Amino acid sequence: MERVAIIGGGPSGSVCALSLLKEGGSHPLEVVIFDKKPFSHYGPLGCNMCAGLISHSVLETLDSLGVPVPANVIQRKIEKHFFETRWGGVSFENAPGAMLYTAYRGMGPLDPRGDEGTGFDHFLLNSAVKRGARHIKEMVTSLEIPSQPTRPIRVRYGDHRVMDAHVVVVACGVNSSFPQVLQGLNFGYIPPVTFHACQAEIPLDEGEVNLWFDNSVKVFSLGLKGISLGAITPKKRFVTVTVLGSHVRRADLERFLLNPIVTRHFPPHWELPTQYCHCHPKVAISTAKNPVTHRLLVVGDAFISRYLKNGIESALYTGTKAARAILEGKVSREELIRHYVRPCRERYHRDNYYGKLLFKTHDMIAKHRWLVVPRLHMISKEAKKERWEEKTETQVLWHLFTGSAPYKSIFLRAFTSFAKSFAKEYFLMVKRILKRDSMEEE
Ligand SMILES: Cc1cc2nc3c(=O)[nH]c(=O)nc-3n(C[C@H](O)[C@H](O)[C@H](O)COP(=O)(O)OP(=O)(O)OC[C@H]3O[C@@H](n4cnc5c(N)ncnc54)[C@H](O)[C@@H]3O)c2cc1C
C-alpha cells in the first residue's frame, strides 16, 4: 500500500487526510499525520491560534466529506456584524441564508470557566483518525528528497526516527520553523510573507456576552497607530480580541482594548484582567513560491490563503485539491503544477491583490471623518431597505469582513457603490455643510 505522510494536523492537513480516505476506496492508501500539538489541552500550546470565525461554506465542505461539525464544537452562531469607527458605528445582519459560527482552534483558553466544548482542530484530526489515518504525535524535523524521482521521500521525525513515504503533503502553516526547513531543501520553495497578530481571550459571564455582544462580531477601524484592524469575536464565556498590524505586540492589544471606543462595548464595571490567555500568531499575506516538487506538495497557509479572511476555507480548498491530485496519481512536479498549483493560484492569488487594495482603501477611509461619516450614513439608510441586493455598501462591508466572496467581486461592488450612492451621499453632505456655513455667516 502506498503511504502518504502529512506534516501538520491543522485544517489543511486533516481535511487532506479525510478526502484521501473518503475517496480512496478503490485505491487504498496508508495516511500518516504528524503533529505534536496537544489539541486536547487548554491554552495556546494546544491551539492553532485564530479568531475562530467559521463560514457556512466550511461546514458544507465538511458535511460533504461526511464529517458534520457537532454542536459541542460550535461556540456561537453569528447573526450580525458591528462596524465601529472613531465617528460612530453601525450594525448589519448577515447576508440572507449565510450563517457564521465561532469555534476554538484548541480546547479553549487557559482557565476555562466551565465545559468549553471541543476544539475545531481536535474534532477534525480525530475524525481523520476514526476514518483510518495514523496520527504520530511528533514533529517532523526534516525531509530527504531523493535525486531519483521514483524513490520514496524520507521523513525524519521526533528523536531521530525515520519513515519513507510515496507522497509528502506539507500542511505546517506559517507558525512553525518548518517552512524554513522546506526552503533549505533547495527545490525552490519560498514561504509566504507574514504579518503579525496579537490575540487575547477575555473572560466574561455567559449572560454578559449575550447582552453586550448579541451574537455579533465587532470590527473596529479606529485609525490607531500600528493597528490596521481590531475585532472582537464572541464565544460562549469569552470574547476573542484580535489586533492586526505589521509589528503588533501585547502592549498594542491593551492600547486597543483600553481605548474608550472599545471599552464601551464591555459591561460598565469591566476591567482588563491582569492575566489572560493570549498569543502572537503570524498571518500569511502572500503566496509561497514553488510549493511543489516530485511527490511533495505544500497545502494551506504555507502555500496560499485568502488574504486576511476565511483562511480555514482556503485551507480546506487546498487540502481537498491536493488529495484529488494524489488520488488521480498526478504527483510528478509538472502534473502537480498543472492540476494542483494552478487551480489554487487561479482561485486566490490574483484575487488577493483586490483584497489588499480593498483593505488599504478601507484603512485609508477609516482615518478621515469626511469619508467615514457618509459611509456610515449610507449603511444606516440601507438598513431600512427590504432587499439585500439593494444594500450595496452593506454587502461590501459584510463580504470584506467575512471573506465569503471573491475580493474581485467585492471590489467591483465597492466601485459601483461609490459611483452610485457614495458620491451622491458625499455631495449632499458637502451641500449641507455649505448651507450651514452660509446661514452662520448671515
Ligand atoms: C490572528 C488570526 C486570526 C485568524 N482568524 C481566522 C478566522 O476567524 N477564520 C478563518 O477562517 N481563518 C482565520 N485565520 C486563518 C487560519 O487560522 C489559517 O488560515 C488556518 O489555520 C490555516 O490552516 P493550516 O492547516 O494551513 O495551518 P495551521 O492551522 O497553522 O496548522 C498547521 C499545523 O501543522 C503543525 N506543524 C507545524 N510544523 C510541524 C512539523 N514540523 N511537524 C508536525 N506538525 C507540524 C502545527 O502544530 C499545526 O497543528 C486567522 C489567523 C490568524 C493568525
Provide an overview of this structure:
The chain is an alpha+beta fold and 442 residues long. The chain has three domains: 237 residues, FAD/NAD(P)-binding domain (3-Layer(bba) Sandwich); 90 residues, Alpha-Beta Plaits (2-Layer Sandwich); 74 residues, no CATH class. 38% of the residues lie in helices and 22% in strands. The strands form four sheets. Strands 5, 6, 13, 14, 15, 16, 17 and 18 form an eight-stranded mixed beta sheet that branches. Strands 8-2-1-12-20-19 form a six-stranded mixed beta sheet, covered by helices on one side. A hairpin with a 2-residue loop joins strand 19 and strand 20. It starts with a strand and ends with a helix. The mean pLDDT is 93. The site of flavin-adenine dinucleotide has 37 residues, from helix 1, strand 13 and helix 8. Flavin-adenine dinucleotide binds next to helix 1, strand 13 and helix 8.
Tell me the distance between the termini.
Answer: 90 Å
What low-confidence regions span 5 or more consecutive residues with pLDDT below 50? none
Helix-strand category: alpha+beta
Q: DSSP strand (E) fraction?
A: 15-25%
Helical content band: 25-40%
CATH arch. level architecture of the largest domain? 3-Layer(bba) Sandwich
Averaged pLDDT: 93
CATH superfamily of the largest domain: FAD/NAD(P)-binding domain
Largest sheet, in brief, is: 8 strands, mixed
User: Given the structure, what is the number of helices?
Assistant: 12
Tell me the number of structural domains.
3
C-alpha Rg, in Å? 23 Å
Silhouette: globular
Q: In total, how many beta strands? A: 20
Bound molecules: flavin-adenine dinucleotide
CATH class of the largest domain: Alpha Beta
> Do you know the CATH topology of the largest domain?
FAD/NAD(P)-binding domain
